[in-house]
Amino acid sequence: MRLSLRFILPLAAVLIVIAYATVPLMDKLIERWFIRDLEMRSELIANSIREPLLERLDNGSADRLSGYFNRITLNERLFAVGFCDAVRGRMVATKKFPEEIRCENVPDISPKTAGFTEKSGIKVYVTVEPVESEGLLAGRLVFVHDMGFIQRRSAEIRKYFFGFFTALGCIISLLTVIIAHMSRRGWISGIRALLRGETLKSMGGKGLASAPELQPIARDLRMLIRDLENEYRPRDEEQITWTPESLRSILKSELRGEDILVVSNREPYVHVKAGDGIQVQRPASGLVTALEPIMRACSGTWIANGAGSADRETVDGRDRVAVPPEKPSYHIRRIWLSEEEEQGYYYGFSNEGMWPLCHVAHVRPIFRAGDWSQYEAVNRRFADAVVEESDTDSPIVLVQDYHLALLPRMIRDRLPNATIITFWHIPWPNPESFSICPWRAQILDGLLGSSILGFHTQFHCNNFLDTVDRLMEARVDRETFTISFGGHQTAVHRYPISIDWPPAVEFTAKPVEECRRDIRSQNGLSENHAMGFGVDRLDYTKGILERFMAVERLLELQPEWRGRFSFIQVAAPSRSSIGSYREFETEVRSMAARINGRFGGGGYLPIILKIEHHDHAAVYEYYRAADLCFVSSLHDGMNLVAKEFLAARDDGRGVLILSRFTGASRELPEALIVNPYDIDQCAAALHMALLMPTTEQRDRITSMRGLIREFNVYRWAGRMLLDAAVMRRRERILERSE
Ligand code: G6P
After folding, report:
1. Distance between CA atoms of 587 and 539, rounded to whole angstroms?
2. How do the residues of the chain divide into helix, strand and coil, expressed in percent and rounded to 5?
3. Closest residue by CA, ligand 1 atom 15
4. pLDDT digit string, tens, across residues 272-288
5. pTM surpassing 0.85?
6. Quick check: CB of 575 below 6 Å from ligand 1?
């Protein structure tokens, strides 16, 4: 109301001033129009009475003439008429003719106009019309017009004029009040919110749709913001020294300190019963290796399947447990799966279907309808947990891997404003390979619920885009690497995963020389015995058989290594309920035995196979003791063993032999890159590694360590979170312009 008065009162004042200033002008204008009219009428009357006047002049008396004039003045607008007879020198006039007008001064009255005179309080206007007869002036007709009617008309017009101004004032006031209210609610707050990057919705339930006039501004702002971001992001990313602290501060500054939710099948800490007590284990999983330091840095909640034998005994009433055990900084929220669920979802669809489907490792994928329905049901249970654990309606959720392909869509349906970053830790196959999955459309639809979908390599991003392009009704933009599907956009980007850098001090505390000595003595090897090392989950994608064949070939081709070189393979048992994994273990064991039988003897084993779980510290000791590390995956998303080996070698010694089918090979060309299917090539690489001069080892290792130092796991997560922050800002702006 106060606002309305603030607008209306000054407006009313302005309108009154305008009206008063305009009225005299209007009066003058109206008068001028009417005078022109009077003059025309005088001329007309003079013309029409000329003949009868001249006739009456010739024949009649002055009385007859004045009677004639009286009849003419019956017209309401003619006050009096007179005639100055030029021939007879007399004036014939009607009764009311003003005395002050005499024939002597009539010629002085300009031919037509005579101006105004007041007559008995009546305003009159005098016009003079000459009357000629046969070319000579017969006299002058003098018309005295009554101006009263002009005044009456003027007053009427003034009334309408004021009425018009009042109506105009009311309309303008009304419009002003409406616009003022709109401005207060929409425009001003809209612009402020745009500048602050907030939503109009949050400021009063109105989007930009209700202020379409802001759309061009919003567009410009969007472009400006995008430009600024493009400039700022790469520079920032390079300038940051990526540490747990920098990641924490990004979360604080860019994402307003919001907690993050990580969701994966595998949990970072497994509690298992050991005798009378409970032991904590760290599972062998690249995903866990990478994400655990991130969660330590960022806090939040990690939702995962509680698969340990003592997991239920260690959680609180809400199925949560604080970890790491030595210094808790985040929570694991455990999901309990029945045997049936685990069988269908984890062993069945995830590891007998999706895993071989995505890895070109020539193990046939198996798809069962029963497994699929368990997969769907378990994904839904994870979605329930995400909704339960989320404090806001727009959480940041990091969904991990092929076990949870349906989860992004399920979260999106229930928390439409969530920022969902999905990371696919394994390769993505080409469209032909992928299309054999009977539920391909559901898997793609599920993943396209993500805000960002990450892969390790550009090649896998390309494969994903090709797959969506081929199998879905979606718009694929290859310039920006985005997919629009069902009104939602997913950015598909490459984020090569990495490891914690620098590695935890306890992993590198033991001097390399000591590690060499201890590991050799533990394995019955002499101090100068050459040693190769491999560590993997016991999985058919890891190329363990090919690795053994390469060792065998080396010993065949270079007999000088017999008795002087052994390869230690640590293999963590994995997914052993699955037939193909059990068969694989049998094959691995028998091949090691066969090669050992062929070239071993007298205490010498060319292959030392350890199928058991080793903790991180033990694995690092092996890395530091080895002369070479052999990663021979047949297909691998990234492979963090390669990076861990380099991180362990702060002495600048050791050689990395790396399969070209790992994501890591794209980043580490200084390794000896091999095709694991080419056994001779692998054997040659082993030989070369064993003979490589220490200076060359140092050069290669130093260069590769430099890359990992620069692109550590904090940068991997930081880049995704920075992209998520940009996206959240952009979404806030776009939301308003829709
Ligand atoms: C791969 C997958 C991970 C998985 C890990 C261990 O690295 O990408 O998601 O956790 O293997 O497999 P597991 O079946 O033991 O979790």
Report:
1. 11
2. 55, 20, 30
3. 574
4. 999 999 999 999 999 99
5. no
6. yes
